[in-house]
Amino acid sequence: MVNTNLEAPASHYLLTSELSQEIDQKTIQNIGIDGFTLMEVAGKSASQLLLDQYSELSNGLYLCGKGNNAGDALVLARYLLQNDIKASIVFISGSDDLSEDTRTNLQLLHKYDQHNRLKIYESWNDAKPLDTFDFVVDGLLGTGLNSDVRGKYAEAIQWCNHQQTPVFAMDIPTGLHADSGEIMGIALQADHTYSFGGRKQGFYLGDGPNLTGKIDYCELPFPNKYKQDCHSFLLDESWNSTEISPTGKHKYDSGVLYVIAGSEGLTGAAIMATKSAWAEGIGAIVLICPRGTLPIYEQTLPSIIKKPVGDRDDFFFKKKHIQKSLQIIGEKEGALLIGPGIGRDKSTIEFVQSILEENSKPTLIDADGLWCLSQLTEWPKPHDRNWILTPHPGELSKLTAENFDTDYQRLQIVQQISQKEGVTLLSKGMPGIIGTPEPKSYLTNYDTTPFARAGNGDVLAGKIASYLALGYSPDTSCAMGLLNGKQKLDHLLKQSQEVPEPTDFI
Ligand SMILES: NC(=O)C1=CN([C@@H]2O[C@H](COP(=O)(O)OP(=O)(O)OC[C@H]3O[C@@H](n4cnc5c(N)ncnc54)[C@H](OP(=O)(O)O)[C@@H]3O)[C@@H](O)[C@H]2O)[C@@H](O)CC1
Ligand SMILES: Nc1ncnc2c1ncn2[C@@H]1O[C@H](COP(=O)(O)OP(=O)(O)O)[C@@H](O)[C@H]1O
Ligand SMILES: [K+]
């Protein structure tokens, strides 16, 4: 029983290069909306956005390749020409070999030019010295790019990156890989990206966030059914409550959250996690702790039920605590959070292994709990249980025995592992990536560096575990946990310039 129920809004589907092409082709061939029409819609919606956002533009420089990406730029040029905005168009590889729809759009553009406001250059060399212009449009290359940008294209990009005027990218900044966010030799730095038919996955990985500028989604008439093959989504605060909703159970029909956390020297992790979970309004939290650590929690966690296991001189979880802990966890419905601050003793690993094998609750495994898991040759996960794992990059690497240099590799590992093991994986970092068994993945788009302070992982784990106990699905719980922090961060930063303390996020 693996529950997933996040429903991304259509504007938040993230397309790969292959999927973009597939959807284009199916719409053209099966639905009968031709490529020319799609191009018209793309260029027109970009023109509307651009005119809304910039009122003072008078002369555009359009850098064009020979494919359909150039066609989008030509449609844009036509609509802006209608608004008295001049166009200087540079075809980097000449205009003899344009794609069919792009050629048609060049012919149309000439027909719309009543007052000689159009200039055409047949090569990059011809175009220099360039006329004055107050914005640049990037219609060089689109989403299909899969080799390093060549020749004059690279030269034009380098030049463009030194200009002061705003740069508008059609569909994707040229040189950015649509799937991975990798720079293909050189890439254009855009101020705005008008993303046609769907945002591209690479906008949120690798160098993507540094190159796209502001991203505007321009809808194309793609039937929703063709988007069903999309597995990757953007998670941001614009998602509303119907998209992030409870699974069946009423939110306030809350179960108990059992927390197995803390050991000598690491009781802070247990305190942060339980306080954070408590703040979400859950009815009861039971903190299971080695008896020697109990006095600290008596002082610090008055609202939390404490159930000590073992003897007064037990300061970390051991094999001998297994039965008692399982008995406590089995008392009521709810969820389990295991890991923050439990340490890495050999006996703790055995303890964790048995708890994971025997307990039947939805379970969040974090921090040292993940380390214990990484020490086992096989994960003791029963197939019908919901597990959430919340590793930071080091923990993910240890857990999967995989090294990754890029976000794209990290995404691929998250997708593989969550599907193979049937778990929901929240890979912390920038971006945060949620992977589900379906498999689906959700990428965040905000700066996570303010969260990179010891304690924020415990706060996040506490929130997510509390949502699990409240009856939300694992993926929804992760999404809510991340967005809860982001919302608080925005609020705190409005009040002060300082980086907030982890306790501020509770
Ligand atoms: N109907 C549709 O499908 C719709 C598509 N739409 C738009 O089309 C875009 C995709 O268009 P596309 O597929 O024509 O690709 P695009 O990048 O413009 O040109 C490819 C040309 O570039 C060249 N080239 C390749 N690699 C290179 C390199 N490394 N360095 C230098 N040159 C390189 C290559 O030349 P070749 O190597 O073959 O000589 C090839 O001829 C998409 O992003 C969206 O904007 C929208 O209008 C909606 C409807
Ligand atoms: N609300 C949030 N949104 C995105 N990422 C978050 C959020 N809260 C925490 N994180 C991620 O969790 C990381 C902290 O977790 P971790 O490294 O495990 O720290 P800890 O030492 O607290 O266990 C942050 O660097 C960030 O990547
Ligand atoms: K482009």
UniProtKB/TrEMBL annotation:
Reaction catalysis annotation: (6R)-NADHX = (6S)-NADHX; (6R)-NADPHX = (6S)-NADPHX; (6S)-NADPHX + ADP = AMP + phosphate + NADPH + H(+); (6S)-NADHX + ADP = AMP + phosphate + NADH + H(+)
Annotated YjeF C-terminal domain residues: 234-506
InterPro entries, per the entry: Carbohydrate_kinase_pred_CS, CARKD, Nnr, Ribokinase-like, YjeF_N_dom, YjeF_N_dom_sf
Free-text remark on how the cofactor is bound = Binds 1 potassium ion per subunit.
| Signal peptide range in chain numbering | none
Binding-site residues, K(+) = 69, 138, 174
**Per its UniProt record, what Gene3D superfamilies does this chain match?**
3.40.1190.20, YjeF N-terminal domain
What EC identifiers does the entry list?
Answer: 4.2.1.136, 5.1.99.6
For this protein, the record's Pfam families field holds:
Carb_kinase (PF01256), YjeF_N (PF03853)
Q: Which UniProt keywords apply?
A: ATP-binding, Isomerase, Lyase, Metal-binding, Multifunctional enzyme, NAD, NADP, Nucleotide-binding, Potassium
The Swiss-Prot or TrEMBL record lists the needed cofactor(s) as: K(+); Mg(2+)
Q: Name the positions where (6S)-NADPHX binds.
A: 142-148, 153, 171, 269, 341, 392, 458
In this chain, AMP is annotated as bound at 457
Q: Which residue ranges run through the membrane?
A: none
Lineage top rank: taxon: Bacteria
Q: Which GO terms describe its biological process?
A: metabolite repair; nicotinamide nucleotide metabolic process
Every copy of the YjeF N-terminal domain together lies at 20-228
Q: What Gene Ontology molecular function terms does this protein carry? A: ADP-dependent NAD(P)H-hydrate dehydratase activity; ATP binding; metal ion binding; NAD(P)HX epimerase activity
Q: How does it assemble?
A: Homotetramer.
Q: Relate the protein's function as given in its record.
A: Catalyzes the dehydration of the S-form of NAD(P)HX at the expense of ADP, which is converted to AMP. Together with NAD(P)HX epimerase, which catalyzes the epimerization of the S- and R-forms, the enzyme allows the repair of both epimers of NAD(P)HX, a damaged form of NAD(P)H that is a result of enzymatic or heat-dependent hydration. Bifunctional enzyme that catalyzes the epimerization of the S- and R-forms of NAD(P)HX and the dehydration of the S-form of NAD(P)HX at the expense of ADP, which is converted to AMP. This allows the repair of both epimers of NAD(P)HX, a damaged form of NAD(P)H that is a result of enzymatic or heat-dependent hydration.
Protein family: In the C-terminal section; belongs to the NnrD/CARKD family. In the N-terminal section; belongs to the NnrE/AIBP family.
Q: Which PANTHER family does this one have?
A: ATP-DEPENDENT (S)-NAD(P)H-HYDRATE DEHYDRATASE, ATP-DEPENDENT (S)-NAD(P)H-HYDRATE DEHYDRATASE FAMILY MEMBER
The protein here is known as Bifunctional NAD(P)H-hydrate repair enzyme
Query: Which organism is this entry from?
Result: Fodinibius halophilus
